[in-house]
Amino acid sequence: MTRFRKFAQSKRFRRGEDGSMAVEFAIISPVLFLLIMGLVEIGLILSARNILESATYLASRTGRIGYVADNKTQEETIRDALEERASLLFDTERLSIDSLNMTNSSYGNYDNIGQPEPWVDANGNGEWDFGENFTDVNGNGGWDADQGAGGAGNTGEVVVYTVTYPWRLFTPLVASVIGEDGIVNITARAVVKNEPF
Questions:
Q1: What element of type H or E holds 96?
Q2: Which of 64, 100, 104, 119 could form a disulfide with 148 if both were Cys (CB 3.0 to 4.6 A apart)?
Q3: Could you count the other beta carbons within 10 Å of the beta carbon of residue 144?
Q4: What is the DSSP string of 63-82?
């Protein structure tokens, strides 16, 4: 036992351990750096979602009061308000505002959100079929599975603002777990009732 103790205290034994820490670090460091980068990226995504939700809510307030900037439409004014607040972290050219670019955005009241236009189910199959009578709530001349109308709505109407941003992931590990083709769609929604304007 005393021989082993003397050998362990000798310079030769200590010199044999000099490279072990470097080898251990080389084995562990890639996993450690991937983990750190993944945590940073998830933190960025959560921060981006928070910023987008805040920008969407503040832009919807602009639409709710009916404010229109000089030489602009109401939709352009709302988009400008959104871009002003979202430009902190987002490329504003890639923002998509569904309620302003597509149908299904403004409703007569909260109960109508996501509801189909009323129809007479003549054959009793639970689905609208061509030729069955319906009430054209949004006035577009055809039956819709969602009765919302496009745009920022009129006085007293309920408007659903949906803003989507394609967030590109930069960490391969996170990209393999979430998203498609390295992109996660960050979505924020705000539902407001327009004030009298």
A1: strand 96-97
A2: 104
A3: 17
A4: HHTT---TTS-HHHHHHHHH
